[in-house]
Amino acid sequence: MNIDDARIIDLTKILDSRGNLSIIEENKDIPFKIERTYWIYDVPGGEVRGGHAYKENQEFIVALSGSFDVVLDDGKEQKIFSLNRSYYGLYVPKGMWRQMKNFSTNSLALVLSSTKFDENDYVMDYKEYKTFRKDKTDFPIIYKNKNVILDNSSNVIQIKSSNVFDCSLCKLNQVQDQKGNLTYIYENIHLPFSIRRVFYSYDIPGGEERGAHAHKKCHQFLIAASGSFEVVLDDGINKRTVLLNRPFWGLHIPPGIWASEQGFSSGSICLVLASDEYDADDYIRNYNDYIEYRIYK
Fold first, then answer.
1. Annotated catalytic residue: which of 52, 215, 219, 252?
2. What average pLDDT score do residues 77-95 get?
3. Is 297 helix (H, G, I), strand (E, B) or coil?
4. pLDDT per residue over 172-193, tens digit each?
5. 190 is catalytic
6. What Rg do the C-alpha atoms of the chain give, in angstroms?
């Protein structure tokens, strides 16, 4: 694996007058299964993040807001990738020395990882990294094009008739650091499901609403990665409104709940972790159909 195996990957960008949306699906848009998701925010000007390599972990990095540079080094060559748009990201293969720097004000970095945290996977000293690279000259090539073999293993989720009180507001892990804060989530540990899809809404005009649908089987976890908004929950009998306004709080919405988002502040980003790949048949988009579904569920 060398520096040329790192690449910019364009993401789906769905244009909408209510705000734009981009989607990342594991083993499809990115060449690995998502095991860990984290985001970095509140980075002071002039700070540098990273300065390490992974022996096994692969990453996909997106600038959800603002801009920053990712500096990659394979021990022989160095490349700088500037990230400043939310509809593309950088695939970082294992074995690359990585730094992130030149963060603009209010930058927000989303990082998807192929492994859970393991301190033994880190190479923290650059001299040790150079030695490591000499001993690891033949890395397997993980990603060459978009024709990736999909992992078709089932994502088993218990489906029941949920109500709005089954929707849980959760405080997430926050790692505070003078170089910027970080919040992370592991699938099936901090969430009751595997993360198959990540998507986010941005460029949302004031006064617009998003969502207004239900899922038959898909779980979702919503985070106000930037700004704030309200989530209106409806189970056909009860209604509940939850305010999301911190990047270290999130809302779990199980299947069978009608949900919509409203009251977006300027610059808001709604980050969603989902248990399933996109399936149009899983959506209920008409409220009358939803009420009928709830009655016969």
1. 52
2. 97
3. coil
4. 999 999 999 999 999 989 999 9
5. no
6. 20
